[in-house]
Design goal:
Blueprint lengths: L8 E6 L2 E6 L1 H4 L5 H19 L14 H31 L10 H11 L5 H4 L16 E5 L6 H15 L6 E7 L2 H12 L4 H9 L4 E4 L5 E2 H6 L1 E7 H4 L16 E2 L8 H10 L5 E2 L15 E2 L3 H8 L2 E5 L7 H9 L4 E6 L15 E4 L2 H6 L7 E5 L5 H26 L6 E5 L15 H11 L6 E4 L23 E4 L12 E6 L6 H8 L19 E5 L4 H14 L20 E7 L9 E2 L2 E5 L2 E4 L2 H5 L27 E5 L10 E2 L11 H7 L7 H17 L4 H6 L1 H29 L3 E3 L8 E2 L3 E6 L19 E2 L9 H11 L4 E6 L20 E6 L5 E9 L6 H17 L10 E4 L5 E8 L3 H10 L2
Parallel strand pairs: 3-12, 3-13, 4-7, 4-11, 5-7, 6-8, 11-12, 14-19, 15-17, 15-18, 16-17, 18-19, 32-34
Antiparallel strand pairs: 1-2, 9-10, 14-24, 20-28, 20-29, 21-27, 22-23, 22-26, 24-25, 30-31, 31-32, 33-34
Helix pairs in contact: 3-4, 3-6, 6-8, 15-16, 15-23, 17-18, 20-21
């Protein structure tokens, strides 16, 4: 028989028979040497070979980084102090029955203060007030936070913490753990890992539960026997926990499959006892409102999962703590009556003053800890150049991807370690109806990557509308069977997306959407297999930015590092702006006076005999260009290979940027390189549809450069710059040829721009959907009146894109000679096809009433003066070209296009800038 007082020995039934497990802490208290010797022998024979002993912190195969082990050590110190303070509080609580005036101390607060006095709290917490939390029975809740940067193994530490707490605080191998995650992506990942018996996270739980672990979801049946014989882990999304109504969610309903936690329905005295012990239980009241049930004898406690949590007093794990600090979420989580709350976050929310809710940060892991542990790729190599077009930027990014692929194959041949570098491409648009809007679309990027040599199966688009990463063959991105090499997104790779094979970020929308750039930088930081490769290129990551300023890019990267928990937050916590409410879709209809009015506008059309169709850029313009008119000698005529250009910015950014250090220029070794003419051909293939002609042009340019004395190695080293110059020159010459082709077709009648009163004319709809904030504001004129001549009502200030457009609309609304005005919706509204691929979408259409009763329809494009550029000149030339071909001889001003419809209305197209625009409009349209 064991000595008196020994309680650390227990039996666990495994598949292979009886296995002894021993709590080492209690085993040390045994005085009988012979008995201790027998226990040690049995432990080594039966338990250690299978699970490394139930008392062990980590099972076989789980190797913790130094900072992770230090975090668990700090947690152990806290638990030791917390246990001592809990025992003191329990003794005080025992006296309370005899002396009701005795105040039970807040033992978690005392444990926290004791650690602070011993200098064991991080600087971030030492100067902050402790945030006390209390459950539904007003019992103090120990609550601490581990501040771990993204990629630092928060889930691993959570699983290890469960093992430590059950061994040293709860001193049992069963019970309930409520694991709360912020979103579906993290939910799926966590569930998959915890359900896999071979995964390190599950192995850690097996240690905590002595091999008896049960993974639950909110719809899983639950009985008291489960909790008393297993370590039960209930995985829950924050939205399910933070309820808005007691009766709306299944989690809080009496659902019939939660057993053994409450007395029989007819034992009212027992129910009353349970309600007095746990006053925040949901109950059926015998009379009166349900809120008074806990104070009414005769009430019956609901057999709900939520009530079961309240009596079990679970240990609560909160992943992404900063998401759970709404009043509703805090109230609900504390209402589960947790016995311990462990929060994990890269950027936790802290209390700034006494009485505020915030995280009590016990462990503060920095980005430098991850760097020393070889868990992240640093430095970040950034290329910011004046790319002539986005294709050049994407081409250079793809070139880097292929370079990394070669390094990865060498690595695999030397070490058998598999790495497949992946390119992330950030685009401006992903919607199905936005491919022809003048923005860089996901489909445009996909087509160009196909041009560069990737296969369809190697490219995936990840957006809110399309998720090709969810296809079965793409789910396991780290698998050697998966072929994905490029992922195109706008900003859909949110928290929970983890692919350490992502190496290169091509930010095609860096200038227009820096917030998305900030979010995406973190997706390329994680190091595959959390260890360096010994191949320098594979231990760093790369960012290529199109149409962005260097300062903006560096700031976005700095913000990204801080958002991933790698910033210096010792003195200041900078919380990002709250995510605004989702826009509400609302139908906007015509004003009653215009409901019956049909308004048509002409489209640019292609005429072939008696048939007519809308003009196609590819088949009607691009296909008719004489590419033989372009000679290789006219391309890249002033170009010479060089390693750098003065206006280029190539930077290496490390964690020092967080401490104010400047980014430093990137230098690269320039080994011998072979010039790939096929790559040059693919890079210009979208500009020159004939592949043979494209190859001839590329080869001719290279031949001229070689004849000029430049070596092939030097040309190859600057191939991305050569692609830039080729594309710029080809695009310029292509547009000149296309303009001439377009003019010829207008002149000979193949291209028309006139109202025909048929299906090809564009008809302004009678209603459309618009996304609006919850409380939109009506657009108001200078005289204080809301606009009253807009074609659609109501019209809100968010329905214009900028201040100038708002002022323009208000100006039109105040004109007496105006019948109505309409803000044209880009991408889905009225567009004019010219000799360039993207249509011109005018901003406004308005009807000016003439003296004779007829109307002049004016199609107006507005531009800020600072936007006056080559694209704006193209729009002017397009209008002018159409005007010269069709305008009546009586037109007074060049640049207007006047057409006579079958009903006598005129259509005028125009463009104005925001300098002196009111005088321009007055003189052209509204002079008395």
């Amino acid at each position: 028989m064991p000595p008196a007082g020994f309680s650390g020995l227990s039996l666990a039934i495994e598949e292979l028979g009886l296995i002894y497990k021993v709590d080492v802490v209690l085993l040390q208290e045994v005085g009988d040497p012979a008995f201790r010797s027998r226990i040690e022998r049995d432990r080594k024979l039966f338990w250690e070979p299978r699970t490394r002993a139930a008392h062990a912190s980590e099972p076989a195969g789980v190797e913790l980084k130094d900072f992770q082990q230090e975090a668990l050590n700090r947690l152990g110190e806290y638990v030791e102090e917390l246990s001592a303070q809990r025992e003191r509080a329990a003794r005080v609580e025992a006296l309370k029955a005899a002396e009701p005036d005795v105040e039970v101390p807040d033992f978690p607060l005392r444990a926290w203060d004791a650690l602070g006095a011993a200098g064991k709290l991080p600087p971030l917490s030492a100067s902050r007030p402790y945030s006390s939390r209390f459950d539904g029975a007003q019992r103090a809740i120990p609550n601490i936070c581990l501040k771990i940067p993204t990629g630092g193994g928060k889930t691993l530490l959570a699983a290890a913490a469960i093992s430590r707490l059950h061994s040293r605080y709860y001193r049992r191998h069963f019970g309930m753990v409520l694991w709360i995650v912020p979103n579906e992506a993290i939910y799926r990942q966590t569930k998959k890992a915890l359900a896999d018996r071979d995964h390190p996270y599950r192995q850690l739980l097996n240690v905590a539960g002595a091999g008896r672990v049960k993974l639950l979801e909110k719809d899983t049946p639950l009985s008291r026997t489960d909790v008393e014989s297993h370590l039960c882990v209930l995985l829950l999304m924050l939205q399910s926990a933070a309820r808005q109504s007691k009766e709306t969610l299944r989690f809080f309903k009496d659902r019939g499959d939660v057993h053994g936690f409450f007395p029989r329905e007819d034992d009212l005295d027992a129910h009353w006892t349970v309600l007095r012990d746990t006053p925040n239980l949901d109950a059926y009241a015998p009379f009166g409102p349900a809120e008074a049930a806990a104070r009414t004898k005769g009430s019956v406690v609901k057999d709900s999962l939520g009530n079961a949590m309240r009596v079990l007093r679970p240990m609560v794990i909160i992943d992404e703590q900063q998401r759970a600090y709404t009043e509703t979420a805090l109230k609900t989580i504390d209402g589960f009556n947790p016995s311990f709350v462990l929060e994990l976050s890269a950027t936790p929310r802290v209390a700034k003053r006494q009485g505020e809710h915030g995280a009590n940060i016990l462990v503060d892991v920095r980005g430098t800890d991850l760097e020393r542990a070889e868990m992240i790729k640093l430095p970040i190599n950034v290329d910011v150049r004046p790319w002539p077009d986005w294709q050049s930027c994407l081409s250079a990014s793809f070139g880097k991807l292929e370079d990394l692929e070669r390094e990865a194959r060498i690595l695999e041949s030397d070490t058998a370690r598999y790495v497949r570098p992946i390119l992330l491409v950030q685009v401006e648009r992903t919607g199905a109806d936005q491919t022809d809007a003048g923005f860089i679309h996901a489909e445009h990027a996909r087509n160009f990557l196909l041009q560069l040599g990737l296969q369809e199966r190697q490219i995936a688009i990840k957006s809110s509308e399309k998720n090709e990463l969810s296809q079965p063959e793409n789910i396991e991105l780290l698998s050697p069977i998966c072929e994905i090499r490029a992922i195109i997104t706008k900003q859909a790779l949110q928290e929970g997306w983890d692919c350490p094979f992502a190496y290169v970020l091509c930010a095609l929308a860096a200038g227009r959407n820096p917030a998305a750039l900030t979010q995406l930088v973190g997706r390329i930081l994680r190091q595959p297999h959390v260890t360096k490769t010994a191949r320098p290129k594979l231990d760093e990551c790369y960012v290529y930015c199109h149409d962005a300023q260097t300062g903006l890019v560096v700031k976005s990267i700095k913000d990204s590092l801080e958002a991933e928990g790698m910033g210096d937050l010792a003195t200041t916590i900078r919380l990002g702006p709250d995510v605004g409410p989702t826009p509400i879709s609302r139908t906007v209809a015509r004003r009653p006076a215009f409901q019956g009015l049909r308004i048509f506008l002409p489209r640019v059309t292609w005429v072939d005999g008696e048939s007519r169709r809308e003009l196609s850029y590819d088949s009607d313009v691009l296909a008719n260009i004489d590419w033989n008119a372009i000679e290789p000698g006219s391309l890249a005529s002033g170009w010479a290979p060089t390693r750098e250009r003065a206006q280029e910015q190539r930077l290496r950014i490390g964690l020092g940027i967080l401490d104010g250090e400047a980014a430093f220029p990137r230098s690269e070794s320039a080994g011998p390189m072979a010039l790939d003419r096929v790559f040059l051909t693919r890079a210009i293939g979208d500009l020159v549809p004939n592949a043979w002609r494209a190859y001839g042009l590329a080869d001719g340019v290279v031949a001229r450069l070689l004849a000029a004395g430049h070596s092939e190695e030097r040309i190859a080293a600057s191939a991305d710059l050569l692609v830039e110059q080729l594309r710029s020159d080809l695009e310029s010459q292509r547009d000149k040829l296309a303009e001439a082709e377009f003019f010829d077709h207008v002149k000979n009648g193949r291209i028309e721009f006139r109202l025909r009163a048929d299906r090809l004319d564009y008809e302004i709809p009678r209603e459309f959907e618009v996304g609006l904030p919850e409380r939109p504001r009506a657009l108001t004129r200078r005289d204080g009146r809301t606009v009253e001549k807009s074609l659609f009502e109501p019209f809100f200030d968010t329905m214009v894109d900028n201040r100038f457009e708002g002022e323009f609309a208000c100006y039109l609304d105040a004109q007496k000679a105006l019948g109505w005005w309409h803000r044209n919706v880009a991408k889905t509204g009225y567009g004019l096809q010219g000799w360039r691929r993207n249509k011109v979408y005018p901003d406004f259409v308005f009807a000016k009433t003439e003296l004779e009763g007829r109307s002049t329809f004016v199609v107006m494009e507005t531009k800020g003066l600072f936007l006056k550029n080559e694209d704006t000149d193209y729009k002017r030339r397009l209008l002018q070209l159409l005007t010269e071909a069709h305008a009546a001889a009586s037109l007074r001003r060049a640049g207007d296009l006047e057409l006579i419809s079958t009903s006598g209305e005129r259509v005028v197209c125009d463009l104005v800038f925001d300098d002196n625009w009111e005088n321009q409009l007055n003189s052209r349209y509204f002079d008395a």
